[in-house]
Specification:
The chain has 139 residues and is mainly α. Helices cover 47% and strands 0% of the residues. The protein is built from six helices and no strands. The protein has helices at 2-9, 15-22, 26-34, 39-57, 64-74, 80-89. The longest helix has 19 residues, at 39-57.
């Protein structure tokens, strides 16, 4: 992670200074830079491109189970867990429908509102003086 940071900012700051600040050796950084990309990273990059293509073809609706099934149909052998990890790491998510909630009260309206005559004084002086009701269930 430190080496990637140094690589990204080497135009702005000297490499040796960043290595000293981050506590890594400059020789280690240059060795990391010359090291070839490993086979796993190469296959992950190819698999990620295929995942993005399947996800785009589905209109963003496919999650990891369907992406995995589509890739198996294409002949790409990868486990569902690996596909899940790659999708999660790169922020690829399925479009989910919003939950359907019942709205019982709409307070944002311009209709007349009945006056509050009891103003939270619920103790009545005698029976049959104060009547209350909840009609929020009526559409």
């Amino acid at each position: 992670m430190s080496f990637r940071f140094i690589e990204d900012h080497r135009d702005a700051y000297p490499v040796r200074l960043m290595c000293a600040v981050l506590g890594v050796s400059a020789a280690g950084y240059y060795a990391w830079r010359e090291r070839p990309v490993n086979a796993r990273a190469t296959t992950n990059a190819a698999l990620l491109a295929a995942i993005r293509q399947v996800h785009q073809d589905s209109g963003g609706r496919y999650g990891s189970p369907r992406v995995h099934a589509a890739l198996r149909v294409q002949g790409r052998g990868a486990s569902r867990g690996r596909i899940e990890r790659l999708m999660h790491r790169h922020g690829i998510r399925a479009i989910m429908a919003s939950p359907r909630r019942v709205r019982t009260t709409d307070s944002r309206h311009g209709l007349p509102i009945a006056p509050n005559l009891i103003e939270r004084h619920f103790a009545a002086a005698a029976p049959n003086r104060i009547w209350l009701a909840d009609i929020t269930y009526i559409p």
